[in-house]
Amino acid sequence: MDAPELFDGSDLLRGAAVFQGFSPPVRLGVFGDPVEHSRSPVFHNAALKACGIPAAYTRLHVDVAHFYEALRSLPAAGFLGANVTIPHKAAALAGVDEADDYARASGSVNTVVVDGQKLIGFNTDGPGLSRAIREEFSVDLKDLRIVLLGAGGGAGRAIAVQCAMESCDRLVLVNRSLEKALALAADLAPRFRSEKPAGPVERLVAIPHEEEALARELEHADILINATALGMKRTDPPAVPAHLLSPNLLVYDTVYSGGATRLLEDAASAGARSANGLSMLLHQGALSFEIWFNRPAPLEVMRRALFSMA
Ligand code: NAP
Fold it and tell me: Which of the two ends of the chain, N or C, has the fewest CB atoms closer than 10 A to its terminal CB?
């Protein structure tokens, strides 16, 4: 019998019998609230099948109050690991026994490995974004002057840390609440000292999400990355005013729900090359698969599964 597409977090507390009687048994899943919309099961189940791995991947709905006990129940429920999405990524870092350097610097975990009774945390959002940018635009983060919107959010921080670790040419941290961008800039500053020759402008700056400041910084930018929630709803205002976009700016929108966002439409009108967050979603998922199974992910199988539902 196939497993249901959605479980409640409390099912995890009832032990392995709930998950292991299906064919194939449920051994992976994604925690979230809401989680019904998650596309991860589609491409992970396609990958598991293509690789002949007898495991199914499901959605695990759990609210903030019950996340910790659900997470800690993974070993007893017979799971190999899990993904974590909104709003649990920061709590997942606090809930695992160990986390790698990048997850700790990002302040969040999106991939958990069950190792005996221990839980090990990783974050694949930043490396996934990096691979997506290379695939979409044939450029590496290290060669780019980047303006990052939403730097104070969970995904924004993970992307900023990745940009810093790859020593990008320049990073402008933009956030509606400026204090979060300033705090992140203070954390990342040591990584921007002395590795590259100083240019006419500072390599790391933090600015508020305001038109005048954006206009100034976009003059020195190669790519604009949107990691705000703006664009998830059709009624959202544009993430940046359309007239600030130009043909020589690359635009990457991490939002992937519901077709082209206003930002991507404006980028197309301005003649700018642009891409949406589906490629980041694909690559962060492929990297999770590689962490769980220590083998290359069947990327094209996953891509076909994901894009067939886009
Ligand atoms: P989050 O932690 O809640 O952060 C939201 C960010 O958006 C914050 O920086 C927030 O600024 C900013 N923001 C919200 N409303 C805004 C507004 N009206 N004007 C300006 N800024 C606003 O959320 P998250 O988990 O980082 O997710 C952020 C985005 O990343 C979402 O769109 C999500 O779809 C996307 N994402 C994509 C992938 C992928 O694989 N493609 C993976 C992860 C996330 P304040 O700090 O001032 O509140």
Answer: N
Beta strand extents in 150-249 (DSSP E only): 170-175, 204-208, 223-226
- 123, containing H or E segment: none
Probe residue for ligand 1, chosen from 176, 236, 240 as the CB with the greatest number of ligand atoms within 8 Å: 176
At residue 233, the pLDDT reads: 84
Entry field: residues in the chain: 310
Single out the residue of 215, 291, 227, 219 nearest to residue 248, CA to CA: 219
Cα(first)–Cα(last) distance of the chain, in Å?
A: 27
pLDDT of residue 195: 61
Does the beta carbon of 126 lie inside 6 Å of ligand 1? no
Q: What is the pLDDT of residues 115-133, one digit of tens each?
A: 999 999 999 999 999 999 9
Q: What digits encode the pLDDT tens for the residues 255-275? A: 987 678 999 999 999 999 999
Residue 146 Cα to ligand 1 middle (Å):
17
| Residue type for position 183 | A
Rounded to the nearest angstrom, the distance between the alpha carbon of 299 and the centre of ligand 1 is: 26
